[in-house]
Amino acid sequence: MSWKSRLAELGVELPAVAAPVAAYVPAVRSGSLVYTSGQLPFVGGALAATGKVGADVSPEEAKAHARTCALNALAAVEALVGVDAIVRVVKVTGYVASADGFTGQPAVLNGASELLGEVFGEAGRHARAAVGVAELPLGAPVEVDLVVEIGE
């Protein structure tokens, strides 16, 4: 089964690639790796939420936004090489705009990690960093980037 078929089976549709908000491209290939730029939780061209997790945005909402970020990252891969070229997800890095004292960044990033596991199974198991930050671009609560290995 192709990864696109698996997405369809899960009822998940890849969005259009989010337009860059600065001077960068959504994804770059280097050898057998594709690196995505950090993806914000854009839905239909608009940021789905703003604010800090643990104050303005609940951890559960942020987890859903991390899932959206991962879908946006997969859309960037799709536009560059196609998701069916993915051999495995290598690394996920997530940034969480955190209220003072919020330490639940790993649980928030599970939104991205769990989606990748649902889609790619064992090939979706990855290394990860979940980082709490003071602010993110445009006031977003979460940002996610991926590194994926692709086949020829």
TrEMBL record:
It comes from the Bacteria. Residues 5-148 form the Endoribonuclease L-PSP/chorismate mutase-like domain. CDD domains: YjgF_YER057c_UK114_like_1 (cd02199). Pfam families: YjgF_endoribonc (PF14588). Coiled coil: none annotated. PANTHER family: ENDORIBONUCLEASE L-PSP_CHORISMATE MUTASE-LIKE DOMAIN-CONTAINING PROTEIN (PTHR43760:SF1), ENDORIBONUCLEASE-RELATED (PTHR43760). This is Enamine deaminase RidA (YjgF/YER057c/UK114 family). It comes from Saccharothrix algeriensis.
